[in-house]
From TrEMBL:
<keyword id="KW-1133">Transmembrane helix</keyword>
<dbReference type="InterPro" id="IPR002549">
    <property type="entry name" value="AI-2E-like"/>
</dbReference>
<feature type="transmembrane region" description="Helical">
    <location>
        <begin position="69"/>
        <end position="92"/>
    </location>
</feature>
<feature type="transmembrane region" description="Helical">
    <location>
        <begin position="240"/>
        <end position="259"/>
    </location>
</feature>
<comment type="similarity">
    <text>Belongs to the autoinducer-2 exporter (AI-2E) (TC 2.A.86) family.</text>
</comment>
<keyword id="KW-0472">Membrane</keyword>
<feature type="transmembrane region" description="Helical">
    <location>
        <begin position="12"/>
        <end position="30"/>
    </location>
</feature>
<protein>
    <recommendedName>
        <fullName>AI-2E family transporter</fullName>
    </recommendedName>
</protein>
<keyword id="KW-0812">Transmembrane</keyword>
<dbReference type="Pfam" id="PF01594">
    <property type="entry name" value="AI-2E_transport"/>
</dbReference>
<feature type="transmembrane region" description="Helical">
    <location>
        <begin position="307"/>
        <end position="338"/>
    </location>
</feature>
<dbReference type="GO" id="GO:0016020">
    <property type="term" value="C:membrane"/>
</dbReference>
<feature type="transmembrane region" description="Helical">
    <location>
        <begin position="152"/>
        <end position="175"/>
    </location>
</feature>
<feature type="transmembrane region" description="Helical">
    <location>
        <begin position="36"/>
        <end position="57"/>
    </location>
</feature>
<feature type="transmembrane region" description="Helical">
    <location>
        <begin position="264"/>
        <end position="287"/>
    </location>
</feature>
<feature type="transmembrane region" description="Helical">
    <location>
        <begin position="214"/>
        <end position="234"/>
    </location>
</feature>
Amino acid sequence: MKTGLSATIRSLLIVGTTLSVVLGLLFLLFRILQPFLFVFLAAFILSVFLNPLFIYLHQRLRLPKTISATLAIFVSILVVSIPLLIIATLLISEMSNVLAFIQANVGARNELTQAVYGYLNQWGISTQNFEVEVNKYVITTLGFVSASLTAILSQTFGLILNGLLTLLVTFYFLIHKEAIIHYVSNVNLLSQADTERLTSRATEVMTATIRGNFIVIAIQAVLGGVGFAIFGLSSPVLLGALYGLASLIPLVGITLVWLPAALYLILSGNLISGIGLALWAIVSNLLMDNVVSPKIVAGETRLHPLFILFGVLGGVQLFGLFGIILGPTIIALSFIVLEMYRQLLHEQGHISRTSNRLRR
């Protein structure tokens, strides 16, 4: 009895010690890799998006894995950088127009200033010190912008380093994809088929979400730019680009762009143009949110638009910008896990019924 008890205690001590060592090593591994979690996350998403091109180069063109991965990454850099350079050139041109407008109108008693003063006087607000307060606000804002730009420039080296590390990790994710999936399937409790099913579904949802969001941003940017041009606002390319990027922010994103623009038109005396721009933005956004976006994103991911909405909202709060992709992906994977659990219960019930029949 004592021998059996001592053997049990010894086994528990061995298991406890082993578990403590494993958990301790995993904790240390997490702390070591924690500063680079953003890099691994970005590399994983990028590798999922580049995998079809990598497969085409490797399997169809018979190129080696290393060359296929290098070409896939190089093509992705070109596809992203060339449009960005074109857009940046247009934005710089538009920004020069905006700065010229600000220099010509700030501090001058133009129609917009008179209109603002008129509205303030109607509400009983004194305008005697209004310009002084505005100048203080402008100086404070410029100081904040200057400090922000300085901080961004000081972090440029870190951003470049993280970008290079992301490309490097993406390279290894692409060439070692099968080995990674095989290893994960061996260390988890799922079968090879279930692991491949989860991986396939994650890839499908992430690719569809990325592609869908790019299409939505492009359409929103075009709609916004056309609207700003029609209703007489200067710098429609700049405003359209901001409009498209703001569409990534759920619920209130584009409102942050079109509402100030519409108020500017109204206060400038262009009441019809201001109302027209507001109606253009509201109607086009309703069509995008309720007709176009669900068909583009929800249709490809095979998720209900409501789950897409809450997935994006919750994902952004938890993961930041990557939550736009990870939120819907996690929801889709959760449904697959629940379906696997349902099938497991069904199989166990079938086995139990078969066993009872054999006993009879």
